Amino acid sequence: MKILFFTKRDRTVGSSRLRVWQVAEKLKEQYSIDYEILYGITHSSFSLRVSHFRFLFSLIYKLQITDYKLFFVHKSLYPWDTALLILLVRFLFQKRLIYDLDDAEWEHSFLKTWLLSKAAHVVFCGSHPILAWVRKRTSSAVFVPTTVDTALYKLYTVEHATRAILTIGWVGVGRAHFQDGHFALIKPALDALAAKGNRFRFVVLGSQNHQPL
Q1: How many whole angstroms separate alpha carbon 26 and alpha carbon 31?
Q2: CA–CA separation, 64 vs 4, rounded Å?
Q3: DSSP per position, 117-165
Q4: Residue 134's closest CA among 147, 116, 156?
Q5: Half-sphere exposure of residue 185, counting CA atoms within 13 Å on the CB side?
Q6: What is the pLDDT of residues 152-195, one digit of tens each?
Q7: H helical segments located in 74-127
Q8: Which residues pair with 73 in a beta bridge?
Q9: Measured between alpha carbons, how far is residue 26 from residues 21, 87, 90 in Å?
Q10: How many Cβ atoms sit within 10 Å of the Cβ of residue 4?
Q11: Which residues are within 8 A (CB) of 207 and not within 5 positions of it... i.e. 6 or more apart?
């Protein structure tokens, strides 16, 4: 059996690395399951570029290959032509479909998220709020939090001790979240900690040299 994965970016992007690349590699290593990962699908559905049509023909070929028994679709950040092809082949050739959500994709792509959730045999939900949203639309929702390979961090150890100033860390594409006002959501919690006399620093990894942040 082979699995065809769809994901946002290459393994340098956190969500793609942890929820697709890491999973695919472990399945290959431990169960000898072959796979292919399609990523960086950023073209417009209305693009007339030769590269667009070349990709579509390649995708149609891959989707109908009988060796690909399972599609694993991470997020819904795909052009409509790609999403509709996945859905069409899923029903036409009776492929198994796992839909993986670790973000509130419905906020910016409601219809695609709804369609993929309804069509999937199983929906992996990365948080309890996502699980609650999906369960209102299908009974095939499963809570699967993002995990890390602890073996990667064995070389990096620290001595835990009582500290005068604690560090609260946040990792992500900070510029986008800052511009959209998402950091304002945690301000009340930080204010409450400070009001109780807790001394801490808030560190953002992923500010991307965005000066206002």
Answers
A1: 8
A2: 11
A3: HHH-SEEEESSHHHHHHHHTT-S-EEE------GGGGTT--------SS
A4: 116
A5: 7
A6: 778 887 788 888 899 999 887 788 888 888 888 999 999 999 99
A7: 80-92, 110-119
A8: 6, 99
A9: 9, 27, 25
A10: 22
A11: 174, 175, 178, 213
Mapped onto helix, strand or coil, the DSSP state of residue 82 is helix
Nearest-angstrom CA–CA distance, 47 and 82: 13
**8 Å CB contact between 33 and 1:** yes
For residue 20, the 8-state DSSP code is I
HSE-up of residue 121 (Cα within 13 Å, Cβ side): 11
pTM beyond 0.85: the answer is no
Cα–Cα distance measured from residue 86 to residue 63, given in angstroms and rounded to the nearest whole number: 7
3-class state of residue 109 by DSSP: coil
Tens-place pLDDT, residues 96-151:
999 999 999 998 899 999 999 999 999 999 999 999 999 999 999 999 999 887 88
**Positive/negative CA dihedral, 13, 18, 22, 27:** negative
Residue among 145, 211, 202, 208 at smallest CA distance from 173 = 208
